[in-house]
Amino acid sequence: MNCGGLDCESSTRNPTKVIFCFGGLLTALICYGVFQERIMTTPYGAEKEMFQATLLLVCYNRLSTVLVSASFVVFFGESLKPVGPLRNYAAVSFANIAATACQFEALKYVSFLVQTLVKTGKLFPVMIWGTIMLKKKYKFRDYAAAVAILLGVTIFLLTGEVTARSQRIVPTLRYGYASTGALLLILHLGFDGFASTFQDKLFHSHQMSSFQQSLHVTLWSSLLSFLGLLLKGELLPAVSFVLRHPDILVDMTLLSIAATSSQMLISYTIKSYGAILFATVQTTRQFLSILISCILFKHAVTIGQAFGTALVFAALMYRAYKHEGRTSKDGFKDSEAQIDKCREDEARREGKAYEEGDTGASQASLKNPASPQSDARLHFTLAATINSHGDHRRDVESILEESSIPTK
């Protein structure tokens, strides 16, 4: 089977491509975490000024995603017009901005280690929103893993230092209590879970590609975050900070590149090898991010915190292992089965476009289903996982929730 110029069967057996996906995605996600922590916790200049305007960071990140998504929409000959109701895009965008802003703001109060571990608990809000909005049912092992993750995070929080790095290296800097950071992370999980679930619902309710969805969600996010900067009076101070410390612009650009690269690699990895490889990368990345953060930013970890961390990652690996068995039983472990389903979905979309009188790229794809344009689009059919989240650090449950791979 050919898929965008690549032999899909050989792709699943090619160790070079596996290494590329695993190594590339791991590198991109780790770099994202490093630059995020650097921007939010490292003082700039001799005056040791801290960057405050998190909405500027969100806006800059989303604008880069808009450019990439628009480029792919044009490349694939898709419509730039929104397919779904504008209010739905706006709702996802608002939740997305709130989730990302809470995530960045939390680093003013708690350490990156706390942020990373707490975010592994996103399974809870994903399951809650999935039950409410999508009527999904979860197995006992899912709840058991979620409880184990919660227990591990609680042990970590109670057995060692959790305050933000910036407050340790700048003694005069006092944002507030660590409990404020914990509250922000809880809000992040809630908004992120809503955005993921609602975006999944939007994607399946309307005939749109993931890039069309990403384009309009991030376009709304850019607009709303810019309006937020204006309403909060942070735009001019933020621009002034960048002009005083131009090196932060390099960090912001590298952060956006890492985010966009991880988005592209996520879609390609899931398309080629399924969600389980990504889940493995995700868990490995979270562990290495904590390790690298301890080395680069000199975080101290107690024995109790090490035990809590081990418990969290043991639960994550357990879930990945169980999902692999369930995926295999349902017949979706093999890449070819996923690609066949992608082709069916693509054919339905193209057939609908043809019936509505679209004689352009859609009709050409029907006449030649193996055309480069049609096949290339399959590389990104599972890119519903590309959703404008500033940190693209998800566990496998959210990937299975947001992609076309069945979770039953």
From TrEMBL:
The chain crosses the membrane at residues 16-35, 55-77, 143-163, 175-195, 248-270, 290-318. Residues 328-355 have a biased composition (Basic and acidic residues). Keywords: Membrane, Transmembrane, Transmembrane helix, Transport. The keyword Transmembrane helix applies. GO terms for cellular component: endoplasmic reticulum membrane; Golgi membrane. GO terms for molecular function: 3'-phosphoadenosine 5'-phosphosulfate transmembrane transporter activity. InterPro entries: SCL35B1-4/HUT1 (IPR013657). Residues 360-374 have a biased composition (Polar residues). Residues 328-374, 389-408 are annotated as: Disordered. It is found in: Membrane. Belongs to the nucleotide-sugar transporter family. UDP-galactose:UMP antiporter (TC 2.A.7.11) subfamily. This is Uncharacterized protein.
